[in-house]
Amino acid sequence: MLTQAPKGTQDVLPRDSYRWQAVEQAMRDAAALYGYREIRTPMFEHTELFQRGVGDTTDVVQKEMYTFNDKGGRSITLKPEGTAGAARAFIEAHMFADPLPAKMYYVSAPAFRYERPQAGRLRQFHQHGVEVFGAKDATVDAEVIALAMDVLKRCGLGGLRLAINSIGCPNCRAAYHDKLKAWLKPLLPSLCKTCGERYERNPLRILDCKEDADKLTDAPAMLDSLCDDCKAHFDKLRANLDAMGIAYTVDPRIVRGLDYYTKTVFEIITDAPEGSLTVCGGGRYDGLVSELGGPETCGIGFGMGVERLLMVQDAAGVTPPAPRLYDAFVCTLGDKARLEGLKLVTELRQSGVKADLDHAARSLKAQFKYADKMGAQYVLTLADDEIAKGVVKLRDMEKSEETEIPRSEITDLMKSRL
Fold first, then answer.
1. Closest Cα to residue 184, out of 200, 167, 169, 166?
2. Please, what sign has the CA dihedral across residues 255, 261, 264, 269?
């Protein structure tokens, strides 16, 4: 259908775009306070970037990526998440040679996953996120979490719950995998097909299964198998969060859905009508840059879906009011008044006053009705009589008061009132 958006996509209409701008500004304002600078990466990358970075055992790579061959025969993928592209840019631009850490953020970055569309989950969606490269201390883990909480609070969300975990590093994860597989083996016949496929390739991902969650409650926890370095890092994270006054719970079932995560993983959760909802997730990826061909560089970040954020705002009843479209609307009668009205609108706009005039050749009465529908705070009227007297009729729409103002003073008066 030419007049229907593809399944799993949606338009952001003019009447709703202010809400996107509000949550985008919340992200920009918070990021600026923490010293993060914006990065913008392409909407598509070479497919191998995600196979190596995200992991070919993940649902994202195996089932959800939009992948195609371009006219040169190269395999290209619409990016399903933001971290791998940021890591590629970090390596390609030799940012590892700059002063570190490199602290970056992105706003409403488009991402694509082929999955069943549902509330807050689309095939084309948008993410706010941050990526930090070159900071190994657990203070940055706490900072990234604090920044995410700050963004969500600026968006009017309360009742946020932070859950943290550590999934260790390659040094301690191998032994844990053996322990987990031994525990899982008797359960394999009763687990779903996806869990069976993950058993050999990435057993940790089985703990992320929603279908078999009730069967996995007694599974051994990675926290009990951490090496000394990972345990010390997690203890420091907890101490840092305590020092910052950020409440949290430790949830050993958090593993996240992408293979590049190491050590710290976290989720920020809120209540929604359908139950608890994760509005932000992230963690460390200390091996990602080297996996992609760069130098050994640690990293950490988070992502939050904008559509889901807006949905949670709706459920919480914290939708911001729509901004006024026009401060002033100029109504004119006659060709001479129309030219003068155009001059006045130009002056007002140059002075920072949001202004417009009729572009549809309406009658004077219809112009007033239109100005009222558009929510204009003031209506300025110009006709032959006003031009001859050198005045403008100023009507305050909220107070229903009308006065005549000298034409030479109207712009300054509007600026002072607004």
1. 200
2. negative
- Is residue 258 within 8 Å of residue 246, measured between CB atoms? no
Q: What is the mean pLDDT of residues 257-277?
A: 84
Type of residue found at 172: C
What domains can be seen in the chain, in order of their start residue? 17-169+227-316 (3.30.930.10), 328-417 (3.40.50.800)
Here the tokens at position 105 are 């953020």
Which structure tokens are listed for 271?
């209540």
Residue showing tokens 């705070």:
377
Q: What is the C-alpha to C-alpha distance for residues 293 and 298, in angstroms, rounded to an integer?
A: 13
* Model confidence at 295: pLDDT above 90: yes
For residue 77, give the H/E element and its range.
strand 75-78
Separation between Cα atoms, residue 300 and residue 283, nearest integer Å: 5
DSSP 159-218: S-EEEEEE---HHHHHHHHHHHHHHHGGGGGGS-HHHHHHHHH-GGGGGG-STTGGG-TT
Collapsing DSSP states into helix, strand and coil, what is residue 131?
Answer: strand
Coil, helix or strand at residue 57: coil
- pLDDT category at 61 given cuts 50, 70, 90 is confident
Tens digits of per-residue pLDDT, 331-369?
A: 999 999 999 999 999 999 999 999 999 999 999 999 999
**Per residue in 217-255, pLDDT tens?**
888 889 999 999 999 999 999 999 999 999 999 999 888
Closest CA to 38 of 80, 76, 82, 77: 82
User: For residue 150, what are the CA distances in angstroms to 29, 131, 157?
Assistant: 10, 16, 10
Q: What strands, in cross-sheet order, belong to the sheet with 37-38? A: 37-38, 102-112, 124-133, 299-305, 275-284, 262-272, 161-166, 249-250
> What's the pLDDT band for 174 if we cut at 50, 70, 90?
confident
Helix or strand or coil: residue 412? helix
**Residue 286 · residue 263 · CB < 8 Å:** yes
N- to C-terminal Cα separation, the chain = 46
